[in-house]
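Example record for the data management plan.
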Amino acid sequence: MKATVHVMLKNGVLDPQGEAVRHALGALGFEGVSGVRQGKVIELDLADGTSEADVNAMCEKLLANTVIESYRVDLS
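Corresponding structural encoding:
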């Protein structure tokens, strides 16, 4: 089984990397971009029997800083 974890900064948290990407896109001539939020994707290969609750515990303890980040888990 695989899990994909999408981690993003929470709304209201400044995203300097996203702002740098937005600025660079403008400098390259892409004027239609008014905002960029940058996050990360983590792919996990899981042993059979690993539950979504287990993956959520991994996120809470290590994969996401839940003070400033939110996450979403997709299992496949």
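Summary line stored alongside the record: Helices lie at 16-27, 52-63.
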